[in-house]
Amino acid sequence: MRGGSGLDAAKSNLKIKVRPSSPTFTKKQAMRKPFSAAVLRLLFLALPASVALLTTACMKDPEVVMKDYGPIDEAIIKKYLDDSKITTAQRQPSGLYYVPVTTVPSGVKASAGDSVSVLYTGRFMDGRVFDASSLHGNKPITFILGRRQVIAGWDEGIALMRKGEKAELFIPSALAYGPYGAGGSIPQTPYCVLRLS
């Protein structure tokens, strides 16, 4: 100690402990942690592979989904209408053809959200019946219009009708059962005719 006061002597005997605000590790301590660099690299490689697997597993067959059956359906429906000499068919922008059979101009028109009841006969263009209310005790099917409870062609076609009317709908496959069909009785891409009342 150099000549000084007792204060200098007290300072020299004072021991101050400093605690860092966050822990520090030496290289050896860091390597002892349970997640080693090898495990992190493995996770880094497995993550993209699992994401790729999940995204491709949810994809549908692009050949089936991407094929546009619109022109094919249109040609088949037009040929059927011409061969059957049906001249009252009204083509809708969607490709649906609406053929009024019995009209009731004073009838109430259904709109989206309304409950509707319909007697129907569904058949393929070759005349084979695939479903009908007559096969189910001749009881009408009841559903809420515009809620996708039935195929899109029904929602669209029934919205064109008034209560008490009868009509035929020539429905292209995009508005019917599409590339996947429905159960065992309706194959892929069926365009169909529905007689409704």
List keywords for this structure.
197 residues; alpha+beta; Chitinase A, domain 3; two-stranded antiparallel sheet; PPIase_FKBP_dom
Could you characterize what this model shows?
The protein is an alpha+beta fold and 197 residues long. Helix content is 30%, strand content 18%. The chain is built from 6 helices and 8 strands, in the order H-H-H-H-H-E-E-E-E-E-E-H-E-E. Strands 1-2-7-8-4-5 form a 6-stranded antiparallel β-sheet, with helices on one face. Strand 1 and strand 2 form a beta hairpin. The protein is globular. The termini are far apart.
Shape: globular
| Rg, nearest Å | 37 Å
Assembly form of the protein: single chain
Binned, the helix content reads: 25-40%
- The number of E-state strands comes to 8
SSE run: HHHHHEEEEEEHEE
Q: What's the total helix number?
A: 6
| Strand order, largest beta sheet | 1-2-7-8-4-5
Question: What is the strand content?
Answer: 15-25%
CATH second-level architecture of the domain at 68-196: Roll
CATH class membership of the domain at 68-196: Alpha Beta
Mean residue pLDDT? 74
For the record, give the distance between the C-alpha atoms at the N and C termini, rounded to a whole number. 114 Å
The helix/strand class is alpha+beta
Low-confidence stretches: 42-59
CATH fold name of the domain at 68-196: Chitinase A, domain 3
Largest sheet, in brief, is: 6 strands, antiparallel
Summed up:
The chain is built from six helices and eight strands.
